[in-house]
Specification:
Helix content: 40-55%
CATH architecture of one domain: 3-Layer(aba) Sandwich
CATH topology of one domain: Rossmann fold
Strand content: 5-15%
Structural class: alpha/beta
Strand order of the largest sheet: 6-3-9-10-11-12
CATH superfamily of one domain: Glycogen Phosphorylase B
Number of strands: 18
Number of helices: 23
CATH class of one domain: Alpha Beta
């Protein structure tokens, strides 16, 4: 009975009301960092499911009114309680709990209820994992402390919020995946503040970081034992946010609220340690000119920004935002309340003119600046225009494993029902768990049905007739190259349709079934040269709107914006 079109339409209808609802509650806790690192306050629909579960409850109410089912499958006990409260008295409906995507991927899996204590077990496991990771980082910092490369603490430097991957160091030199050549293009005293992605050998990574120029701030060099204790204390402090009753659209969602209040504790411990770091830097008399925040308005951003605001109230924060466009990407659109709470940057830099309107959706007064798309300069490379080579269907797998499984599952079904050969090229996310993905492919006996691409996105697109993925920045990259896109819609969750109004209908499709996907793949494999030329034309227009080229003009604009913040 689940209709993804109706469900997504409902989510689109309520997203603004939901944002204002969260803002009203946030006004009560605007100065409380413990509130801002909760999944509820984050409004993040990519990493958390609070908004989605609220939408499930609203959707369930509609279904129950129209045609009462005999069984309802949902993804959490909290949601199950809400749905049970919506069922008329005296009517028996079975409520089953499972990870919803498994009902799509593993069709033969028996749907079972979660044990009563599983949520508590997950919370304890999350805390233990967070402490284990913190301990590993602390030990790595201690082992490598004698290699410390000091930075200029007197004149003041600009801090760059930077991601560190296992492949980030080439011959000992750090190579930024996102701020490509940035420190060479804009000369200043820079220092990196790392966020780790898929790093397991912290000793090796810290050794490389300490020998790098520009230097890195090693968080563990400054944090104290009390900071760890205080961060763990978050699990006790958030009890004050529990509610006996929370009503949204005349539905009591308190059981969903209270469940999500205790989600992702390890991520919150990490965010709160980032919040404590500026205080310790200040105590060490380290002067800072400004901060460049890789801004996605996630809990780690909120915590870090609030920490710097309190320790360094006069130091400006510049947010560099990436082009993730979604109808439900509300957290990428800061609100006035978040601005008033001091958890977002002074200025948000967007890498394309069209992004300004999207980012300012909830706060028209938000200061923005168009900056060069430093990590997307490959988009100016010219694709091979040999039509005979456009034979591959490129499946780009997202970072989230269950989303990747959904795409692979529908790809498998599509190949099965096709009487024509379809050459499928798999493009992994740089940080995806390939071992887990290959295990899944082996379990389905379909590993040999695909080709696997190890290069970058541009090389994957060279021979593509169509690009298949879920919503992410790679969708916009493909479209800007004139390569049509098929979004694999979820049959159980929100489908993050890119909010790009200027894309022609025949260039971007959303498919929920293998039959629909096959029809569109065959359409794109046989499009005329005239239509393909039109795709390229519209791609160039998108390119101009959403990606700012790195040149003298854009670099000078970026530099002037930073300098004006540092010297108002």
């Amino acid at each position: 009975m689940f209709n993804p079109y109706h469900f997504n339409a409902l989510a689109k209808e309520v997203k603004d009301e939901f944002t204002f609802f969260i803002d009203e509650i946030s006004a009560l806790f605007r100065d409380n960092i413990d509130w801002w690192v909760t999944p509820i306050a984050s409004r993040d629909t990519f990493g958390y499911f609070f908004f989605q579960e609220v939408c499930y409850a609203l959707y369930a109410r509609e279904i129950i009114k129209e045609d009462l089912p005999t069984e309802i499958v949902c993804c959490s006990r909290g949601l199950g309680k809400v749905i049970k409260s919506l069922i008329p008295l005296g009517i028996q409906v079975k409520i089953s709990i499972t990870e919803l995507w498994k009902t799509r991927i593993d069709k033969n899996e028996c749907v079972k209820s979660l044990i009563m204590g599983q949520r508590q077990i997950k919370m304890v496991g999350s805390i233990v994992y967070g402490l284990f990771e913190a301990f590993k980082k602390h030990q790595a910092a201690k082992k490598t402390h004698n290699l410390k490369l000091t930075f200029n603490s007197e004149g003041g430097e600009w801090i760059i919020d930077e991601f560190v991957f296992p492949y980030s160091f080439n011959d000992g030199n750090f190579e930024s995946r996102h701020y490509v050549n940035f420190t060479d293009l804009i000369k200043a005293d820079w220092v990196y503040l790392p966020t780790f992605i898929d790093i397991h050998d912290f000793t090796k990574t810290y050794r490389l970081m300490r020998q790098n120029d520009p230097p890195f701030i090693i968080r563990e060099d400054f944090l104290r034992f009390y900071d760890y204790i205080w961060s763990i204390g978050h699990i006790f402090r958030i009890v004050t946010f529990k509610r006996k009753s929370v009503t949204f659209r005349a539905i009591d969602i308190s059981s969903i609220w209270n469940e999500h209040l205790f989600e992702n504790i390890d991520g919150r411990i990490n965010a709160l340690l980032n919040y404590r770091l500026p205080k310790r830097l200040k105590e060490c008399s380290i002067e800072i000119q400004g901060i460049i925040d890789w801004f996605e308005n996630q809990i780690v951003d909120k915590a870090q920004n609030m920490g710097f605001r309190r320790a360094y109230p006069s130091v400006p924060i510049f947010g560099y935002e990436v082009p993730y466009f979604s109808e439900y990407g509300m957290h990428l659109q800061p609100t006035k309340m978040e601005d008033a709470a001091g958890i977002i940057p002074d200025v948000v830099g967007v890498i394309g003119k069209e992004a300004e309107e999207y980012v300012k959706y909830y706060n028209k007064g938000l200061k923005t600046c168009v900056v060069p798309a430093l990590g997307y300069q490959h988009l100016w490379d010219v694709l091979d225009d040999d039509a005979d080579k456009r034979e591959y269907v490129v499946f780009a797998l997202p970072l989230v494993t269950n989303k990747a499984f959904e795409i692979l599952n529908i790809a498998q079904e599509t190949i099965k029902i096709s009487d024509k050969e379809i050459m499928c090229l798999i493009k992994f996310h740089p940080s995806s768990d390939r071992e887990e993905i290959f295990e899944y492919l082996d379990s389905k006996n379909i590993k040999e049905r695909f080709y696997y691409h190890e290069g970058d996105l541009s090389s994957a697109l060279r021979n593509a007739c169509v690009f298949v993925s879920s919503s992410s920045s790679v969708v916009l990259e493909s479209l800007s190259k004139g390569i049509p896109v098929i979004i694999v819609g979820s049959l159980t969750e929100l489908t993050h349709n890119p909010a790009i109004s200027s894309v022609p209908d025949d260039m971007l499709k959303i498919c929920y079934t293998a039959e629909d996907l096959l029809k569109n793949i065959l359409f794109y494999k046989t499009v005329s040269e005239e239509r393909r030329a039109r795709f390229v034309y519209h791609g160039q227009k998108l390119h101009e709107k959403y990606f700012e080229k790195t040149d003298k003009i854009s670099i000078n604009r970026f530099r002037e914006c930073l300098m004006s913040l540092a010297n108002p």
